[in-house]
Amino acid sequence: MGYTLDDFDYDLPQELIAQTPIKQRDTSRLLVLDHQAHTLEDKHFYDILDELHPGDAVVMNDSRVLPARLYGIREETGGHVEVLLLHNVEGDVWETLMKPAKRLHVGTVVNFGDGQLTATITEERDEGIRLIEFHYTGIFMEILERLGETPLPPYIKAKLDDPDRYQTVYAKENGSAAAPTAGLHWTQALLDKVAAKGVKLVYVTLHVGLGTFRPVEEANIEDHKMHSEFYRLDAAAAKTLNEVRANGGRIVATGTTSIRTLETIGSKFHGEIRPDSGWTDIFIKPGYHWQVVNAFITNFHLPKSTLVMLVAAFTGRDQILNAYQHAIEERYRFFSFGDAMFIK
């Protein structure tokens, strides 16, 4: 059936939007949804150990959030400029989201950190997107670590005391404009227990980009266009996943970014898992035929978002909205710093 945007709306009390991370990552709550049996169980994230079986594989996105928000000054006017780095195009050229975009044209030079870094706008695109080329002396990532800020989502108003809490414990590949937040619940100790149980730990990379910051505006969801994000699955990871599959184990994704990586590859190769990299704009919504993922961990997502649609593609719309209503009644914490679901 054809769905509209309003079909994925729900009422969320503002106070349930988590503003700060929980003290101990794996003590967040976990709502376990068995979508075949139509059951819900209230647990804690550390109970994920009981949900995973020897021979399964847990897939995690190892992308690291860049300190991607920069504040600068226009050289010719002294006006303030905010820049969000979206992705590295090539060399020192980046695709960015800039404000105030209407005043920022090709040739404009922006100065950051008293000249430690400057940028020239080289191309104007729609929706406030600009290509810029950076100029600096030294190592760009070191300068960015000094001058940049972690870009938290707009619904988080509290200041983050420890920027590492918006990184997963296994983050290593620089490139994301936002965290793959389902992975924030994992601790190294819990991952060690999972591995000791005979579960394979597999890492993929998907750099979270502009789509995270863009609401769906089309009433008919079929008209929504996803922004592309870079992904990579290496040969060793593909080999492990194929062995798990061949032995009857489940492929359990951590978060929607891991899902989108695996399902992009599965869709591309008719259900096969192969080493691959490239750009994906896959839009998983009800009616999608799942290729790779058997179960997954995910956070609670924004109303009317493509992520709610993705989860609904696995469970059915009614079942996921019922689960969300249960979570609201039980006072679960929502969104990036909130609690998690395990859907099987």
In words, what does this structure look like?
With 344 residues, the chain is of the alpha/beta class. The protein folds into 2 domains: 243 residues, QueA-like (3-Layer(aba) Sandwich); 79 residues, Beta Barrel (Thrombin, subunit H), CATH 2.40.10. 20% of the residues lie in helices and 28% in strands. The chain has 7 helices and 17 strands. The strands form 3 sheets. The protein has a 9-stranded mixed beta sheet. A 6-stranded antiparallel barrel has the order 5-6-7-10-9-8. It has a two-stranded parallel sheet with strand order 4-11. α6 packs across α7. The two termini are 24 Å apart. The mean pLDDT is 95.
Topology:
Elements: E1 29-34, E2 39-44, H1 48-51, E3 57-61, E4 63-65, E5 69-74, E6 80-90, E7 93-99, E8 109-112, E9 117-124, E10 129-136, H2 140-147, E11 173-176, H3 188-196, E12 200-206, E13 229-233, H4 235-246, E14 251-254, H5 255-268, E15 276-280, E16 295-299, H6 306-315, H7 317-329, E17 340-343
Parallel strand pairs: 1-17, 3-12, 3-14, 4-11, 14-16
Antiparallel strand pairs: 1-2, 5-6, 5-8, 6-7, 7-10, 8-9, 9-10, 12-13, 13-15, 16-17
Helix pairs in contact: 6-7
